[in-house]
């Protein structure tokens, strides 16, 4: 009779469960750091949005965004992270920043 693979992490060998837990704790810590870093980033971009609104500058800055995307792609490559993924993430963040800037400009 062939041994079936474990169905859940709780069915795994204790040493495997311990390593899985250790890795998951690291992931949880990294996720927390990412959230805190994004919060700090958005605090800065809110200030940018207020400054732009005060001086009637447009919410979006396509040239700056293009430079940031190119920069992030290079950083991703050097970190061995998929540059396309990094670009998608930054585009998502930029869209949210622009939305915030538009809201600030309307208020």
UniProtKB/TrEMBL annotation:
Residues 14-105 form the Chorismate mutase domain. It is an enzyme of class 5 (isomerase). PROSITE patterns: CHORISMATE_MUT_2. GO terms for biological process: chorismate metabolic process; salicylic acid biosynthetic process. Keywords: Isomerase. It comes from the Bacteria. SUPFAM superfamilies: Chorismate mutase II. It holds the Pfam family CM_2. GO terms for molecular function: chorismate mutase activity. Its EC number is 5.4.99.5. NCBIfam families: CM_mono_cladeE, PRK09239.1. This is Chorismate mutase. It comes from Streptomyces xinghaiensis.
């Amino acid at each position: 009779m062939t041994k079936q693979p474990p169905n859940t992490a709780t069915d795994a060998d204790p040493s495997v469960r311990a390593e899985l837990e250790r890795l998951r704790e690291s992931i949880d810590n990294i996720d927390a750091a990412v959230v805190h870093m994004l919060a700090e980033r958005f605090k800065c971009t809110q200030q940018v949005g207020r400054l732009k609104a005060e001086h009637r500058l447009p919410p979006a800055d396509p040239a700056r965004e293009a430079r940031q995307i190119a920069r992030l792609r290079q950083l991703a490559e050097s970190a061995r992270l998929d540059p396309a993924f990094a670009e998608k993430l930054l585009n998502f963040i930029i869209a949210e920043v622009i939305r915030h800037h538009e809201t600030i400009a309307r208020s």
